[in-house]
Amino acid sequence: MPDNDKGMPAERRIGALLVISTVAALALAVVYIGGGQPQAEGALLGIALGAIGFALILWARGLSTEGTVTAERGPLGGDHEDEDVVEERIEEVSDEPGRRSVLKLFWAAGGALALAAVFPIRSLGPAPGRSLLTTAWKPGARLVDEEGRPVRVETLPVGGTLTAFPQDAEHAADSQVVVVRVADGEIRPRPGRESWSPEGYIAYSKICPHVGCPVGLYQSDTHELLCPCHQSTFDVLDGARPRFGPATRSLPQLPLAVDREGFLTAQADFDEPVGPAFWNRG
Ligand code: FES
Q: What's the pLDDT score for residue 123?
């Protein structure tokens, strides 16, 4: 490899940079395993990538020549003498210890960087399993308000609304519902949901299917729920179908029942995932 600059030969400089890159990548892995420290990890990643980048630049400079070089083009093909010269030159080049060392160091630096890149996979945490598809609602779970008081069938007047949670799981953020009471017979249930709205009570997930804001504003004159973030509106009487705004999915509906003591309960969990669309939903 030509040494265009005075001082340390190019191979040595490339080798030094690759060693620096390797050490920095290994140190990055050690810092990560030791609990992580974002500033140190950022600095080490910068050093590892920077050093390997400079090494590649020096290596590329060694491969090219300065200025424009022109050469006479002779007849195509060659005689046996030329072939021997080429073979000899290839052997010479592949036997040069400096080049081989540099290539080994490139492998080492690349391997150390790849190793450091594998560790953050651990930061993804445990697989979510079915947790994105279900909530804390169980058959027979009572609805409670924000103070933990069970919701009775006479709690809301027609036109009233409240936010409810499953009893004993009041802090399950994905399970909160907005409960609305409308006059009996006003609801136009979707097929299969005829028994989900006893006494004019109807409950929908409070998490907007657009990007997850709480849908909490109810306009009783138009029977619409409004999301304050981007003004999506949902028709309460028609399965919370979106009427306006960026939301494209209806709010998931919680099937309700009234137990023998007059408390509102869930018949089951939602029949679809709540919240914004994610990768496995069309
Ligand atoms: S989050 Fe509800 S409309 Fe955007």
A: 78
The SS3 call for residue 152 is: strand
Give the residue, out of 205, 225, 230, 233, with the most ligand 1 atoms within 8 A of its beta carbon, to mutate for a pocket test. 230
Q: What mean pLDDT is reported for the chain?
A: 87
User: Which residues lie below 8 Å from residue 226, measured CB to CB, with a gap of 6+?
Assistant: 215, 217, 218, 219, 232, 233, 234
Distance from the CA of 250 to the center of ligand 1, in angstroms?
Answer: 12
Is CATH 2.102.10.10 correct for 143-266? yes
Question: What kind and span of H or E run contains 89?
Answer: helix 80-95
The ligand 1 atom at the shortest distance from the C-alpha of residue 232 is 3
Helix axes 97-118, 38-63, angle to 10 degrees: 150
Name the closest-CA residue to atom 3, ligand 1. Answer: 230
- Cα-Cα-Cα-Cα dihedral sign, residues 219, 136, 254, 199: negative
- pTM (two decimals): 0.65
| Ligand 1 contact, 230 CB (< 6 A) | yes
Domain residue ranges in the chain: 1-66+97-125, 143-266
- Which two three-digit tokens encode residue 3? 């040494």
Q: Is the CB of 217 under 6 A from ligand 1?
A: no
All residues at 6 or more sequence positions from 269 whose CB lies less than 8 Å from its CB, including other chains? 134, 135, 137, 138
For the segment 190-214, what is each residue's pLDDT rounded down to a tens digit? Answer: 999 999 999 999 999 999 999 999 9
